[in-house]
Amino acid sequence: MPTPPSATPRPHPLHVLRTTAFAIGALLILVGVGVLLHQPLLIPPLAASAALVHGAPGLPISQPRNLLGGQLLSAAIGFGTLAAMGSNGWAAAVAAGLSLGAMMLTHLSHSPAAATAVIVVLQAPHPQTFLPLLALGTALLVAIGLLPGRVGAHPVRYPLSW
Q1: Cα–Cα distance between 19 and 4 in angstroms, integer?
Q2: Is-contact 127 85, C-beta < 8 A?
Q3: Which candidate, 15, 108, 125, 21, places its Cα nearest to that of 68?
Q4: Distance between CA atoms of 138 and 156, rounded to whole angstroms?
Q5: pLDDT tens digits for range 9-66
Q6: What distance in Å separates the CA atoms of residue 69 and residue 80, rounded to the nearest whole number?
Q7: How far is CA 89 from the centre of its chain?
Q8: CB-based contacts of 143, cutoff 8 Å, min separation 6
Q9: Which of 18, 85, 113, 117 could pair covalently with 95 via S-S, beta carbons 3.0-4.6 A apart?
């Protein structure tokens, strides 16, 4: 029996290497800036965001508006849920679901951002610190995401839309 064709062709190894290098570089920059600020800037949802920006730069959920808007909207929903329900797993689940719905309604879908709402509920960071750091981290990811399409033969020039 013949093997069915894959849905998408395998990327060229050099493309994989460049994508991997840019993603690592972006995440290392987040760590470095966090060290300089004495604050954690690399959080798991931003690692997932970097994977989308560099691994799937043409997807709507990877675009700057969705990345920044989805992350900040989900964080705000996380803080609201935290205030209303406290810090527990039930509240974290509600915050993630509410984030998904709000992102869909506002056309800011960015799936890693639902995890940001969970982190806010479970960790209860101070909004005055967390929100500017989150905005900085997402802005850095967008800025670094601009480089691959301008430094060589990347198949997609990020962003496709703002």
Answers
A1: 27
A2: no
A3: 108
A4: 20
A5: 888 898 889 899 999 999 999 999 999 999 999 999 999 999 999 999 999 999 999 9
A6: 16
A7: 22
A8: none
A9: 117
